[in-house]
Specification:
Layout (H helix, E strand, L loop, with lengths): L6 H10 L10 E5 L9 H4 L5 E7 L2 H4 L1 H16 L3 E7 L10 H14 L5 E3 L15 H14 L4 E2 L3 E3 L4 H11 L6 E5 L1 H5 L8 H8 L3 E7 L12 H15 L5 E7 L23 H11 L1
Parallel strand pairs: 1-2, 1-9, 2-3, 3-4, 4-5, 6-7, 7-8, 8-9
Length: 294
């Protein structure tokens, strides 16, 4: 478990990250759940400085392998000078959505275990049908409001949403109940990216017009394979290129977190890895390298 002695390192790391400007391109990182990513020579060659991990909201309080995975990932990120964002989602164990108090207690436990983490997403992809907040944006706002008081010094992504139908209606309710007029938002624009929607016609553009403040593409990338998409690494690479075309819509998009590093071997399952399950580079990695060189 990381201790409080990392506070100075975290402060230095935050100071070292460049401020956003109208002329700057967004910071780019890759999200994953495996600490092995940081030891991969291909990842190291990219010189990325931000990353993201999504964990169950009760990872710390429940313990076990979920807690160990989180601890290992954060330790490896800091060891490599990389700033992590932690996003929380529903428990991997069956059960209803946490109450506000249950959520708050879990966040307090996380803060006690990892006070060095200063980037928080209270609820991952909150409008997606697989999340208990999908039809209850007020509950997502409740979680955000709790996070504001639990992590008073952190930057908090107010709502983290998928670019699906109905997202604007969902956000209108969320904003009604969210405190302090949020100025930082997260978009998962997989649909825009992988269906090659023109930037001017994209949901990404619609969200930028509606949301105030700074916007991060907190999870996006090229889908190699899924339950609805056949395996195609070249298509995924083109989608990654399109991600950056979408990110260029506005200087208000200041960060892009691609997901993810390692692919999988099971057919017809979600796979957006930049490298294969064994670490072999894919076309998507070449697309990312081309953007970083540019």
């Amino acid at each position: 478990m990381l201790g409080r002695h990392l506070a100075a390192l975290v402060a230095a790391l935050a100071f070292a990250l460049p401020a956003a400007s109208a002329s700057a391109r967004p910071l780019v990182g890759v999200g994953d759940a495996s600490a092995a990513m940081f030891a991969d020579a291909n990842w190291q060659s990219l010189h990325l400085r931000i990353t993201r991990i999504c964990v169950p909201y009760d990872a710390v309080t429940r313990g076990g392998w979920e807690r160990a995975q989180l601890d290992d990932f954060l330790a490896a990120a800091y060891a490599h000078g990389v700033e992590p964002m932690v996003a929380f989602g529903h428990s991997r164990h069956a059960g209803p959505a946490p109450t506000r108090n249950e959520y708050r207690q879990a966040m307090l436990a996380f803060r006690a275990a990892h006070p060095e983490v200063q980037l928080i997403t209270p609820w991952n992809e909150a409008n997606w049908r697989g999340q208990p907040t999908a039809t209850n944006p007020r509950l997502a706002a409740d979680y955000y409001n709790q996070a504001l008081t639990v992590f008073p010094s952190a930057r908090i992504v107010a709502a983290d949403v998928l670019d699906q139908a109905g997202v604007l209606d969902w956000l209108r309710v969320f904003r009604t109940y969210a405190y302090r007029h949020p100025q930082l938002w997260g978009i998962h624009n997989y649909l825009d990216a992988n269906h090659f929607i023109a930037a001017s016609q994209s949901t990404t553009a619609q969200l930028l017009r509606y949301l105030p403040g700074e916007v991060w593409l907190t999870e996006t990338g090229g889908i190699v394979e899924s339950s609805t998409m056949s395996h195609d690494e070249d298509r995924a690479a083109r989608a990654i290129t399109h991600v950056f075309e979408l990110a260029a819509i506005s200087p208000r998009i200041t960060r892009v977190y691609l997901y993810n590093w390692y692919g999988i071997t099971q057919p017809r399952m979600w796979d957006s890895g930049l490298v294969s399950a064994t670490g072999a580079p894919r076309a998507g990695l070449a697309a990312l390298r081309a953007y970083l060189r540019g």
